[in-house]
Amino acid sequence: MKAVIPAAGLGTRFLPATKSTPKELLPVLNKPVIQYVVEEALEPEGVDGVVIVNSHEKPQIEQYFSVDEAFEEELRGRGKAFQADAVHDAGSLPVSFVYQDEARGLGHAVLCAESETGDEPFFVLLGDYFVPDRQMCVNMAKVSKEHGGASVIAVAPVPADQVSRYGIIAGECVGSLDGKTPEGEESDGAVWKVTGLVEKPQPEDAPSHLFIVGRYLLSPRVMKLLETQGIGAGGEIQLTDAMERLLEDEEMYALVVDPEEGCDTGTPAAWAATNAKMALQDESSRAAFLEALGSKAASQLG
Ligand code: G1P
Hints:
Elements: E1 2-6, E2 27-28, E3 31-32, H1 33-41, E4 49-54, H2 59-64, H3 69-77, H4 81-91, E5 95-99, H5 106-111, H6 114-117, E6 122-125, E7 129-130, H7 136-146, E8 151-157, E9 167-176, E10 190-199, E11 210-218, H8 221-227, H9 239-246, E12 252-256, E13 263-264, H10 268-281, H11 283-293, H12 295-300
Helix pairs in contact: 3-4, 8-9, 10-11
């Protein structure tokens, strides 16, 4: 089973940095953003490979995920075994590449991976967000198993004035993860049966306040539907629209997650905040980070 990570975008929000460094390779501490997403994608049992949908303009991503024995040897020769291991581990991750050279939307990007996903269900993980050590995809796989292998998406509550930025679901709460009682229908761990999906609705048209956070476990039929999917919101081929069509034939569930558990890297401000959050959580960085920040700024962080 494969996990697909769309990564062909230009990263315009990060220009000029992304003129020569793909957005996906910007670091959070000392690791590129996309490596956190790849590692998250490999957490669920059964995922044996990650397919990155890249553009030919960003060969640096392939270079990062390939083994460079000469470089490793040089590092070892200089006594940097720890760094050599880290370089080796990144290059050895089970990552393959397909290409999307035209920006035709998320649905089109996912369709580019069809030859790799085959007849199996597949995960899609959007790369502007990662959730370290929270087993989000593992939990989605559990919900799918409990419901006969149905598609499952992760969703979270969003204020009404922001629904037009996201895909929004319609449905009803039917239970919870592991049979635990959730605190409310829109709280962490609640499971919904999805009856409709709409991409970037106006607030008055939104069927709920639950938005798709960018983690999907999808039936292979979605690929077939994407082959004939017309243009949707924003003039793009939308994954959400193909999922809406899937509901005519198959069931779909949504797992409510706490978006605060994840790390957003979609804008320079969010990326900087994520670096701060990760530095505070990292034993070897925490003290030096707070010191570098100075006491005034550090006290603002709480
Ligand atoms: C995409 C999806 C949308 C989802 C969002 C999450 O939108 O189309 O349904 O809610 O990601 O970030 P985009 O951010 O690409 O416009």
